[in-house]
Task: inverse folding
């Protein structure tokens, strides 16, 4: 394994761990927001629409930010019955196809976000007044990082095949 490959893997691992750290902080934020909303409603008879919007935003961001970490560490949801039943070149081709499908998903999603935000980027969220770009930024960052992790995994598959 080359030093450059190891460094890239280490940096991607650190980046995905940072995303999981942010996701854990968001989980704490969701808890605080929901408890604050329940307390405000039940004890003070006031609604906090901004807390509801913020907890939804943080929940979605949390899920997206955890995804690259799971893929990097091979802990993502995957159907492996077919690839597990294969050996050699067939198995390698199946694994490469799966990574290419992940890359295709990332490319289509990023393009979809681009097209969507061309229109929706001008607007803000109703309760918090945050620009839509900021609302969707965790998902954009996550999908871009997911694509990088998938490219890294493709490189590892190619290197493993070259060494075999």
Result:
């Amino acid at each position: 394994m080359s030093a450059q490959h190891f460094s890239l893997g280490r940096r991607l691992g650190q980046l995905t761990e940072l995303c999981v750290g942010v996701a854990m902080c968001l989980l704490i934020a969701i808890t605080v927001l929901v408890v604050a909303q329940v307390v405000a409603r039940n004890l003070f008879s006031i609604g906090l629409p901004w807390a509801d919007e913020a907890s939804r935003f943080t929940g979605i961001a949390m899920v997206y930010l955890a995804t690259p970490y799971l893929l990097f560490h091979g802990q993502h949801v995957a159907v492996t019955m077919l690839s597990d039943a294969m050996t050699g070149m067939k198995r390698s081709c199946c694994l490469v196809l799966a990574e290419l499908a992940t890359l295709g998903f990332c490319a289509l999603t990023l393009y979809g976000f681009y097209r969507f935000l061309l229109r929706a980027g001008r607007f803000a969220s109703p309760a918090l007044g945050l620009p839509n770009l900021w609302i969707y930024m965790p998902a954009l960052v996550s999908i871009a990082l997911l694509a990088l992790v998938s490219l890294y995994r493709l490189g590892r598959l190619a290197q493993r095949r070259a060494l075999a």
